[in-house]
Design goal:
CATH architecture of the largest domain: 2-Layer Sandwich
CATH topology of the largest domain: Alpha-Beta Plaits
Number of helices: 3
Shape: globular
Strand content: 35-45%
Number of strands: 11
CATH class of the largest domain: Alpha Beta
CATH superfamily of the largest domain: NusG, N-terminal domain
Helix content: 10-25%
Radius of gyration: 19 Å
Order of helices and strands: EHEEEEHEHEEEEE
Oligomer: single chain
Length: 172
């Protein structure tokens, strides 16, 4: 399978969240796309506004009119994204999308380094960092796009699924 890269899609202004929702719904309906379109983002930033003398922190879009996609570029994914309502096109010369470079992704807080793991579904793992430190659980699901593992932990006498970053766990 080809490597996934981050691409930028231009949308109608104000349609960023609708485009994100539409693409995610399309992925949900076409399971084969879930392996090719890994993540859809509308980058947000916290901004402090002063209104009537009151400071208020609100979230604003970093790039109004743009949506970021982590996907494997092929004819199917290009067609699905390009024909999503609200999308005007990919960013790049002509009709050829250009992936973002490492330097362009860094200020957005997007990490491209993939963590290699030595465990799979059904394996017992120990959480070595974060909120669930020193917890042991069995891997129920792996999400390589988000780089997370879903494990069941006992909480209030019940098994509860918890999502943990690959970097926070080790195999038992």
């Amino acid at each position: 399978m080809a490597e996934a890269n981050w691409y930028v899609v231009h949308t109608y202004s104000g349609y960023e969240n609708k485009v994100k929702a539409n693409i995610e719904k399309t992925i949900e309906n076409n399971k084969h796309l879930a392996e090719e379109i890994l993540e859809v983002r509308v980058p947000m930033q916290d901004v402090v506004e002063v209104k009537n003398g009151v400071k208020k922190t609100v979230q604003k879009k970093m790039f109004p009119g743009y949506v970021l996609l982590n996907m494997v570029m092929n004819d199917d994914t290009w067609y699905v994204v390009r024909n999503t309502r609200g999308v005007t096109g990919f960013v790049g010369p002509g009709s050829k999308p250009v992936p973002l470079t490492e330097a362009e992704m860094k200020p957005l807080g997007i990490k491209s380094d993939n963590v290699t793991i030595d465990f799979g579904e059904g394996d017992s793992i120990a959480v070595v960092a974060g909120v669930w430190k020193d917890t042991v659980g069995i891997v129920q699901k792996l999400d390589y796009g988000k780089q997370t593992a879903t494990i069941n932990v006992e909480l209030f006498g019940r098994e509860t699924p918890v999502e943990i970053s690959f970097a926070e766990v080790r195999k038992l």
